[in-house]
Amino acid sequence: MTFDATTFLKHSDRLEIDDLDFDAFRDQPLDAEALRCLRYMHDVESHTVCYLRDVLVTRAHRDPDITSFLTIWNYEEFWHGDAIGKVLAGHDETAGTTRIAALRQRLPKGDRWQPVGFQVASALTPHLTAVHMTWGAVNEWTTQAACARLAKLADHPTPSVLLRRIMKKEGRHIDFYSSEASGRLANSRAAQRVTRWALRRFWAPVGTGVVEGAEVDFLRTYLFGDEDGLTMAERIDRRVDRLPGLDGLHLLTSAVAA
Ligand SMILES: [Fe+2]
Ligand SMILES: [Fe+2]
Q1: What's the 45 CA to ligand 2 centre distance in angstroms?
Q2: Neighbour-count burial of 68, counting CB atoms closer than 10 A to its CB (0-12 exposed, 13-18 middle, 19+ buried)
C-alpha cells in the first residue's frame, strides 16, 4: 500500500469526542474487565511520546517524511489517551497527568538507558529504521484489533463509538508504518535479516515494560484468548507474513499462546 502523506496531513486532527456522553457511565458503568483494559490503553496511548523519544535518537530523525509523520502521530495518540482518560474519569478513576506521572515513576530502571541502546544500535546498522517502521506497523495493527475487540466485549454505546473513531485514526498510522516497512524491507536483504532477528528476539505486545506484566497477561487473554480474538491475531500474523522477508514469525499467535 502506498502512503499518501498529503492526505494524512490534511486529515490529521484531534479526536472528536465533544458529542460523546461520558456521563452515561453514572447509570451504566462498564464491567471490571473492560475498565481494566481501558486503563491499559490509556497508559499505552499516553506513553507514545516516550516511544517517540527512542526513535528520534536514531538516524530516522534525518528522514523528513518520517519526522513529519511522527509529529502528527504523537499529537493524535495524545488525544487517544486523553479521550480514554475521560472514560476512566466517568468512573471516578484517576486519569491524565496524575496517572501518567505515577506510571512513569514506576518504569523500570533500564528505561533511562533505552535511548542510549537505540543510539548505539543505530550507529551499528543502517537498518534500525526498517525495524522501527515494522515494529510500528505490528503495534498499530494490534492496537486497532484490540479496539475492535473491546468495542464488542464492552457492549456500551460510548466506548463503542470512541473506539471506532480511534480505529480509524490507527488505520492511517498503519498505512504509514506498513508502507515504510514494506519499502525498506523490499530494498534490502540485510534489512530483512536485521528486522526478522529483532522481532524474533525482542518483540512483545505493546505496553510490555510499561505496564505491569500481569496487565499484559490479562489483556492478551481477555481480548485475544477466545476464538474471535485468535482469528484476529492470526490475521495480523498474516499481514506480517506479507512483509518482505518476514514470513513465518507468528508473533501474535505466539504471544496469545504464551
Ligand atoms: Fe492510538
Ligand atoms: Fe496509532
Answers
A1: 8
A2: middle
Ligand nearest to the CA of 147: 1
- Of the candidates 33, 78, 31, 27, which has an alpha carbon nearest to the alpha carbon of residue 51? 78
pLDDT in tens, 15-26: 999 999 999 999
Question: 19 with 86: CB under 8 angstroms?
Answer: no
Scan for cell 469526542, then name that residue.
17
CA of 170 to the centre of ligand 1 (A): 6
pTM for the predicted model, two decimal places: 0.95
**Ligand 1 centroid to residue 77 C-alpha, Å:** 4
In the numeric block, which cell numbers belong to residue 55? 526513535
CA of 27 to the centre of ligand 2 (A): 31
The helix-helix angle for 64-89 and 97-105 (nearest 10°) equals 110
Half-sphere CA count of 72, side-chain side, radius 13 A: 20
Ligand 2: distance of its center to the CA of 177 in Å?
10
Per-residue pLDDT reduced to its tens digit, 58-93: 999 999 999 999 999 999 999 999 999 999 999 999
